[in-house]
Amino acid sequence: MKNKHTISRRNFLVKSITALSAIYVVPDIFSNVSAAKPPNIEVSSKTRWGMSIDVDKCVDGCTSCIDACADENGLYGFDRPETDSQWIRKLTLKDIKTEKITVLPMLCQHCENPPCCDVCPTGASFRREDGIVMVNQHTCIGCRYCMMACPFKARSFVHENLTKQLTNSPRGKGCVESCNFCANKIDNGSDSTACEEACMKEGHNAISFGDLNNPKSRVNIAISKKPNRRLRADLKLKQTVTYSGF
């Protein structure tokens, strides 16, 4: 005779699924909290951050945007490719028809329909009302579904314990991370990213960032000067990072 205290396989699965469902609801609350600006202005859809990158101005061999991103976010690794995080990397593309070579910075494309958020089982990957796609370090369980779902390979995974931490950009072992448009800077009143500032300092001006809802923003001025396109537009992700010059 079965002991009444014995949990059957069926009951165990039902209880496990119920527990997971409860966990799934919690991150939504955390996401809303982390999406608010500390000072006194809340994140809202009135602002929609975006970036335009002119590949004609991007200089092959220049790593100023990559270096600035690493310094701003404390992306210090262990000199092993599998553990070093890169929120921006330079890609070299070749047009198979014209054989034209194009070099461009690749980062999180901050999609309006982000697949990384769709597949995240805990809601750790989320999109703020102002369009910034982020990862909640507290609720990321390191499953890496988002990394597999991202068609741009824009996310990194922290494999090792980290000894160097920046208060403005906390990181942790077992978590996924990616470009967040320098959310800490934005949430404290800035309207530029570290990569844009570095590119301007070098005199290249290939990166233009700003509020897409503001006609006078740098990003909209750049878009008005040259036709911009989204990478893999066929996926209909509606990225807020666009490219011109190719």
What's the total number of strands? 9
Q: Would you identify the CATH architecture? A: 2-Layer Sandwich
Q: What is the rounded distance between the termini?
A: 74 Å
Number of helices: 7
Structural class: alpha+beta
Radius of gyration: 20 Å
Query: What is the arithmetic mean of pLDDT?
Result: 84
Apparent shape: globular
- Succession of helices and strands: HEHEEHEEHEEHHEHE
What level of helicity do the residues show?
25-40%
Strand-residue fraction?
Answer: 15-25%
CATH fold naming:
Alpha-Beta Plaits
Main CATH class: Alpha Beta
- Largest sheet strand order: 8-1-9
Please outline the major beta sheet. Answer: 3 strands, mixed
| Count of distinct structural domains | 1
Task: Give the low-confidence spans.
Answer: 1-38
